[in-house]
Amino acid sequence: MVAKAAHVRFKHFAGWRFAYPAYGFAGPANAVTPGNKTLTGLTSMAYTTFSQTKNDQLKEPMFFGQPVNVARYDQQKYDIFEKLIEKQLSFFWRPEEVDVSRDRIDYQALPEHEKHIFISNLKYQTLLDSIQGRSPNVALLPLISIPELETWVETWAFSETIHSRSYTHIIRNIVNDPAIVFDDIVTNEQIKKRAEGISCYYDDLIELTSYWHLLGEGTHTVNGKTVTVNLRELKKKLYLCLMSVNALEAIRFYVSFACSFAFAERELMEGNAKIIRLIARDEALHLTGTQHMLNLLRSGADDPEMAQIAEECKEESYKLFVEAAQQEKEWADYLFRDGSMIGLNKDILCQYVEYITNIRMQAVGLDLPFQTRSNPIPWINTWLVSDNVQVAPQEVEVSSYLVGQIDSEVDTDDLSSFQL
Fold first, then answer.
1. What are the record keywords, sorted (predicted)?
2. Which residues does the annotation mark as catalytic?
């Protein structure tokens, strides 16, 4: 198969040749042999930041079509992504808007085992959103073919950076030296082994995408390693990556969320809980986004070949979710190793993980692995559904306030019953 001609520029620096736009790929000038071609005659599926080829974006697939040229929002192939963008923008918030000053007093009074629960969850959440703040952009944008999905991914990733900033806001308020907390994240074995299960799918997709853009389909030698680039395999890696991200957004945050809300149920660490509530509201949008991507792909409506790939990946997708659930149970065991907290313990949290895992897997067409069918902590829904509670704005910081959520369309009939 002959791939499209590449628009590849090379820079020489200290004996290295960097190729653009091969995301994440760089190597010595003599390190790449694309099949039986030399670099001079290189052909590839080149990515360009602005394709000058006119096309109908309504006929492009979500992925692997022509790169997006004009970012236009007057029409959408899939309007769900435009709705998600608008909702996410209306949710905009900054952590500094939430007063966490009292949390410092509460934290100092916590017993040691509850301090461990609280600070460990913040470390884990920092890891998750550090990954999510960069990876969707790096992994997905070079493959996307429609503007509404491109902008949704950018909007999604930006909101994840706000979450990361929130954890810094919370941590530097409750401890004297935040560096001690952050430095432990990359050395803590319990956190590291969870990072591997998340990042490997992103990394595999990014690596193969780099080769596909730079070298095109075929068998190539890179740094002495034989690399086979195949579009079908790349589609499979994309599908599994999206499924991994879906599992992350669907279940990996919720043990930590439950602990934060359990503290607040006792009127402790309430500033933290308000921020986590805002984060949970965002994560529900992100989950909806990945669920729609997966369901469009597995239905074959967007790309018929993807329906076959989804079926081929069904068993691995199932295992991926179950493994994520098992890791969350192990995390609950780690959190409560020195003791439980009022209203929450390891067994209850493990049941909750099984409950939400069943719901999330059903939403993307997977079989249910667990017997748990009822929510063991129904009180958490008060925190996760922001419209369940209404409070006067002057009483507390209003976490359900939406910017731009007013319907400005007024008909004269709407005023018929109005009297002065």
1. Deoxyribonucleotide synthesis, Iron, Metal-binding, Oxidoreductase
2. 167
